[in-house]
Amino acid sequence: MTTRAASAGAVPLWSLTLAEASARIAAGSLSPVALLESFLARIGEVDERIHSYIRVEAGQARAAAALAASQIATGQWRGPLHGIPFAVKDNYDVAGMPATAGSRLRLDHVPDRDADLVAQLKSAGAILIGKLSTWEFGTGNGGEYFDLPFPPARNPWDTERFTGGSSTGAGTAVAAGTAMFALGSDTTGSVRLPASATGTVGMIPTPGRLSTRGILPNCWSLDIPGPFAWTVEDCAIIMDALFGAPARGALPAMSLTRAVGQPVAGMHVAVIDDPGPGFPAADAALAAGLEEAVRVLERLGVRITRTRLPIPAAECFAATRMIGPAETAAIHEKELKEQADLMGFALRDKLMGGSLVRAVDYLAAQRLRRTVADEIDAMLRGFDALVTFGTLHLPPRLGVEPEMTAFTIDTMLTPFNLSGHPALVQCTGFSNGLPLHWQVVGNRGDEASIIRLASAYERATPWREKRAQP
Predict the structure, then answer these.
(1) Would you call 216 helix, strand, or coil by DSSP?
(2) Residue 37 domain flag
(3) Is residue 1 part of a domain?
(4) What is the total count of domains within the chain?
(5) Rounded (10°) CA dihedral 409, 457, 174, 412
(6) Residue 167 annotated as catalytic
(7) How many angstroms separate the CA atoms of 264 and 384, rounded?
(8) pLDDT value at position 188?
(9) Whole-Å CA distances, 373 to 85, 409, 415, 419
(10) Closest to 307 measured CA to CA, from 276, 272, 268, 269
(11) With contact defined as beta carbons under 8 Å apart, do 461 and 230 qualify?
């Protein structure tokens, strides 16, 4: 477990790791009420500048924290998430709470039941603070156009910078300390892209491990939920809680916290530092950060092999441009026909484009997806894990469309959406105050090797000691 200070007052409570806060709560030295109040105060202090939240439910959260404190005091501790504050992207349903998905079309939509993952976290005793900013319907075309009913989230490392999409508020909240952890969703990078931009840990598991019930669908065949956390250990704790009741037909549950801190000497890791033809090389700072991170692994005894993607990242992205918009248009055809005038530009642009995708092109993209999955699976089978970039660029200026679009499109994320492999993004340093990152990918069903490798890197580097101060 990460430890920094012996006394509860040494650092602000909102800046504790989840593991630290959980240990203090279990030991009786920290009350869930005090922890929640620290996050509510932090929201009041910074959220007007970063817009991580669409809705804060302080009253409900305080009642839940008081109940958690009472339960723990009487010996009813439920586990490491009991009393821990979290928030969810606003495409998740929460009973009795508006689920707007950032859209005028859904301002009055109030679900009567929780999304499965929200219900699991509440059952584990976690305290829901509220709903987080997102691109409209949890999707878009890669840009921000300032035409939605809620202001876009801003990057807490530099509020003039982009947060990535579409889980914009989730990355911002965890980086800035307005939530201890958050849930987002990823179709072609929408967890890992904001994690890249905000210096947080963002993870997607093997498809099928986590339920999507109660999450507004974007693309049936690619959607996958995932958490944001400050540390790899925190991410493992969250995933273990969610793995406790995996989706029907999913792989057997496993414990990821047991992988945290395990030695990595002897692991065999593939390194990909070239996206292949069609995309530019990574920004120089990201490339240097990747190389230094690889050297850290080598010092830890990891065996490194350089390799290439079997199919260029640009071709993988092109396939997702046929699959994603077409499926989104099919899901939201009625809204496009009847309420397009209420949509923001990004959603309307994507739905109109998706409506024009030919069936033959969609089917060809799905055939290519099978090839990508088979070939990446074959490549990874000889390795414990793979490391590469997430996006190929540093966080761009908010509102500068060519920069935002390049950040969103020029990535190494979509190959692993198509292939169905678990992946994690984590911080690998900073350049001019902006976070650097890499992506760690595992074999299907082997999230534990990702956690093992990423936690070893994290413990060997100082990057988690620096918090964003918007």
Answers:
(1) coil
(2) yes
(3) no
(4) 1
(5) 10
(6) no
(7) 10
(8) 97
(9) 37, 20, 8, 4
(10) 272
(11) no
3-state secondary structure of 39: helix
Q: What is the distance, to the nearest Å, from the Cα of residue 460 to the centroid of all Cα atoms in its chain? A: 23
Q: Is 190 a catalytic residue?
A: yes
Q: Coil, strand or helix: which one is 127?
A: strand
In sequence order, what are the residues at sequence separation of 6 or more whose Cβ sits closer than 8 angstroms to the Cβ of residue 453? 264, 267, 269, 297, 302, 384, 385, 387, 440
Question: Is 166 assigned a catalytic role?
Answer: yes
pLDDT at 8: 45
> Which pLDDT score, from 0 to 100, does residue 250 have?
54
The per-residue pLDDT for 324 is 98
Q: What is the model's pLDDT at position 252?
A: 61
Catalytic one of 167, 190, 449, 455: 190
- The pTM score is 0.96
Active-site annotation holder among 22, 31, 38, 89: 89
Q: Are 135 and 164 in contact (CB under 8 A)?
A: no
Structure tokens at 63: 């009642």
Q: Which domain holds residue 158?
A: 16-465
Catalytic residue, chosen from 133, 166, 185, 449, is 166
Q: Which amino acid is at 77?
A: W
> How far apart are the C-alpha atoms of 79 and 82, rounded to whole Å?
6
Query: Are 263 and 248 within 8 A, CB to CB?
Result: no
Q: Does the residue 461 lie in any domain?
A: yes
CA distances from 347 to 145, 224, 398 (A): 11, 19, 18
Q: Which amino acid is at 362?
A: Y
Q: Which of 314, 315, 316, 329 is nearest to 359 (CA)?
A: 329
CATH of the domain at 284: 3.90.1300.10
pLDDT for position 112? 98
- pLDDT, residue 220, reads 95
Positions in the chain whose pLDDT score sits under 70 = 1-9, 245-254
Q: What is the dihedral of CA 415, 355, 218, 143, to 10 degrees?
A: 70
Contact status, residue 252 vs residue 361, Cβ threshold 8 Å: no
- The reply to whether 7 falls in a domain is no
- In the prediction, which pLDDT does 2 show? 43
- CA distance linking residue 161 with residue 267, whole number of Å: 37
